[in-house]
Structure formats: C-alpha cells, structure tokens
C-alpha cells in the first residue's frame, strides 16, 4: 500500500534533529522546529486511510518513507506498532525511538531529519519548494 502527502518548504527548515523527522499541516515554523522538513502538508496522522492505519498498527509491518524534492529522493525505514494512536490533526512524526504519542507514525526508524542530504534541506528552505512524502507498507 502506498500513500502520498504533498508539502511545502519554509525558510526556517533546519532538519538537524537526531531522533525524529516531522511534516506538519501548519504553515508557520520557527527555528525551534528543527525536526520539521515540510509545512502545509496535505494530510496528518488523523487523515490517513483506515486501511493504512491498520497496516501501521501491525508490529511486523516494515514501512518505507520517501521524501522527494525535485529529482532528489531520500528514504527511511521504520516499523509499525499495535499501540500507535494516529490521531493528531496537524502532524506526522517518525521516530528512531519507540516513543508513541498521537503524532507518531512509525518507530525504530533508521534515520531522522539530521540524515536528510544538505542540498535537499537547502532546496526545502525555499517556501516555493514542493515535496512529496510517501508512505509505503508491505
């Protein structure tokens, strides 16, 4: 199953958090949001289709996330968990840890926002940049 979420860049995208990566439906971003790689996202955890949520709640579900900006693609692997809440109406967060809250989409991910290639971060600092966040489950 595959689900795509379009998002925009923002001048304050730093993408240097070592444990999480986030996209948000919010349009504003302060430099403190150093895990955020995109704003104005078209979907949040709450907006995901039920079938996808069910797959994300399977602990055996390996999840591949890709972020595409222009011709550049960055991939992250993570895992589902039966206790995922998936109810946050603004944000999607993927985590290296196993912490779960309403914003958590996946845990035990192999990368966080600090792993995003710096040229991609620079591209995302343009408010006119358009990115695509893709969730693929097996």
Explain the overall architecture.
The protein is mainly β. The protein has a single domain, classed as mth639 domain like (Jelly Rolls, Sandwich), CATH 2.60.120. The chain has helices spanning 50-56, 118-124, and strands at 2-8, 20-24, 36-38, 62-69, 72-79, 91-95, 104-106, 130-137. Strands 1-8-4-5 form a 4-stranded antiparallel sheet. It has a 4-stranded mixed sheet with strand order 3-2-6-7, with no helix packed on it. Strand 4 and strand 5 form a beta hairpin. The radius of gyration is 13 Å and the shape is globular. The relative contact order is 0.31.
- How many helices? The count is 2
- Biggest sheet descriptor: 4 strands, antiparallel
Instruction: List the domain count as a whole number.
Output: 1
CATH-scheme architecture: Sandwich
Q: Using only CA atoms, what is the Rg?
A: 13 Å
CATH topology: Jelly Rolls
What is the string of SSEs from the N terminus onward? EEEHEEEEHE
Tell me the fraction of residues in β-strands, as a range: 25-35%
Sequence stretches where pLDDT stays below 50 over 5 or more residues: none
Helix content: 10-25%
From the N-terminal CA to the C-terminal CA, the straight-line distance is 7 Å
Q: Report the CATH superfamily.
A: mth639 domain like
Would you state the CATH class? Mainly Beta
Number of β-strand runs:
8
Shape: globular
- Secondary structural class: mainly beta
Mean pLDDT: 97
* Biggest sheet, spatial arrangement of strands: 1-8-4-5
């Amino acid at each position: 199953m595959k689900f795509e979420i379009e998002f925009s860049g923002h001048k304050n995208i730093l993408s240097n958090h070592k444990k999480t990566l986030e996209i948000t439906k919010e349009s504003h971003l302060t430099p403190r949001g150093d895990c955020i790689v995109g704003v104005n996202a078209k979907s949040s955890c709450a907006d995901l289709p039920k079938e996808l949520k069910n797959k994300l709640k399977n602990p055996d579900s390996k999840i591949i996330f890709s972020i595409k900006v222009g011709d550049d693609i960055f991939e992250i692997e993570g895992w589902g968990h039966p206790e995922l809440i998936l109810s946050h109406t603004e944000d999607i967060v993927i985590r290296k840890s196993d912490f779960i809250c309403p914003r958590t989409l996946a845990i035990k991910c192999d990368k966080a926002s600090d792993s995003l290639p710096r040229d991609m971060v620079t591209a995302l600092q343009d408010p006119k940049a358009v990115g695509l966040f893709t969730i693929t489950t097996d």
